[in-house]
């Protein structure tokens, strides 16, 4: 798999105990969400220059992840909301390496989003970026995380008809199938890295760990990551995960052989957890 070379170099920082933040791979897939108790924050952190421009809408910090911050702001016109993903400098990292990594990761993520958008895979459009500053502005998805949508279906089964959740799971399978079809591996598939927009469409987000690959093995691992995340986030919907895989298999030619590979990947996963 052609990974972004910059992703591998800091997966294991030399001494995690002295670092005040951990690398992205080790985070649990739920970034700290700002709530009413932790009021946002334009002033809590140093902002990228673009957000200090007096003409821009005051930015609202939505989440603070291990490696990036996500702000809601506007782009070009006050009525065009955007999501601004900013990778702040890491003061503990060597300055030259830090700037190279921030540039490489921002560029890689924006490139993948652009490719997906061009080829009709549902992702936010890229509006603009400044790789030296480490930010990109993308289309604001005015929706809810798929994780929340699934849980609300599970909690209110009578209010939400059964076809609602089936449609949702089918769309997830199709979106991933279309992503894999164009040669991209997401790298961090979870129901938090997908949003449901007001038109009830599933939009894939967070391509910070994405890579280019046409290999069935890489595709199967991508699905396995989602399967594990899904089972632990939505244990009550365990059986319904089959609908995701069914839709995936029907979306592209190699779909069925990827599912066969997925069985191997699961087997390896089980062996590994038995050995410990
Ligand atoms: N385009 C977007 N529109 C609306 N909200 C978004 C958008 N992109 C990200 N978010 C929100 O910000 C959170 C963090 O963004 P994400 O790209 O997943 O970064 P991280 O790498 O920190 O997980 C998402 O889980 C989602 O709630
Ligand atoms: Mg995320």
UniProtKB/TrEMBL annotation:
User: Protein kinase domain spans which residues?
Assistant: 56-276
Q: Which UniProt keywords apply?
A: ATP-binding, Kinase, Nucleotide-binding, Serine/threonine-protein kinase, Transferase, tRNA processing
* Region of interest: Disordered: 1-59
Q: Where is the composition biased (Polar residues)?
A: 1-21, 32-44
Q: Which Pfam families match?
A: Kdo
Highest taxon above the source species: Eukaryota
Protein's GO biological process: tRNA processing; tRNA threonylcarbamoyladenosine metabolic process
What InterPro entries does this protein's entry cite?
Bud32, Kinase-like_dom_sf, Prot_kinase_dom, Tyr_kinase_AS
Q: Which reaction does it catalyse?
A: L-threonyl-[protein] + ATP = O-phospho-L-threonyl-[protein] + ADP + H(+); L-seryl-[protein] + ATP = O-phospho-L-seryl-[protein] + ADP + H(+)
Top enzyme category = transferase
Q: Could you tell me which SUPFAM superfamilies the record lists for this protein? A: Protein kinase-like (PK-like) (SSF56112)
Q: What is its EC number?
A: 2.7.11.1
Q: Which Gene3D superfamilies match?
A: Phosphorylase Kinase, domain 1, Transferase(Phosphotransferase) domain 1
Cellular component GO terms, alphabetically?
A: cytosol; EKC/KEOPS complex; nucleus
Subunit structure, as described in the record: Component of the EKC/KEOPS complex composed of at least BUD32, CGI121, GON7, KAE1 and PCC1; the whole complex dimerizes.
What NCBIfam families does this protein's entry cite?
Answer: arch_bud32 (TIGR03724)
Name by which UniProt lists this protein? EKC/KEOPS complex subunit BUD32
Could you tell me which species this protein originates from? Podospora fimiseda
């Amino acid at each position: 798999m052609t990974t972004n070379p910059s992703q591998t170099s800091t997966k294991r920082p030399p001494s995690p105990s002295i670092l005040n933040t951990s690398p992205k791979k080790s985070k649990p897939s739920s970034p700290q969400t700002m709530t009413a108790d932790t009021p946002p924050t334009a002033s809590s952190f140093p902002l990228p220059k673009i957000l200090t421009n007096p003409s821009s809408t005051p930015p609202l910090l939505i989440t603070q992840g291990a490696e990036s911050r996500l702000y809601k702001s506007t782009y070009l016109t006050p009525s065009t909301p955007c999501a601004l993903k900013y990778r702040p400098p890491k003061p503990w990292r060597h300055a030259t390496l830090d700037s190279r990594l921030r540039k490489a990761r921002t560029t890689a993520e924006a490139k993948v989003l652009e490719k997906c958008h061009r080829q009709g895979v549902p992702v936010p459009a890229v509006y603009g970026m400044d790789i030296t500053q480490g930010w990109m502005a993308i289309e604001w998805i005015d929706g809810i995380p798929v994780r929340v949508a699934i849980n609300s279906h599970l909690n209110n089964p009578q209010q939400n008809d059964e076809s609602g959740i089936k449609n949702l799971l089918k769309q997830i399978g199709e979106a991933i199938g279309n992503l894999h079809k164009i040669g991209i591996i997401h790298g961090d598939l979870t129901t938090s890295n997908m949003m449901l927009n007001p038109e009830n469409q599933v939009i894939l987000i967070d391509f910070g760990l994405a890579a280019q690959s046409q290999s069935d093995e890489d595709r199967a691992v991508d699905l396995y990551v989602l399967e594990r995340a899904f089972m632990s986030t939505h244990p009550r919907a365990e059986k319904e995960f089959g609908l995701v895989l069914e839709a995936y298999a029907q979306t592209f030619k190699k779909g069925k052989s990827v599912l066969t590979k997925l069985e191997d990947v699961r087997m390896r996963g089980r062996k590994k957890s038995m050995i410990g």
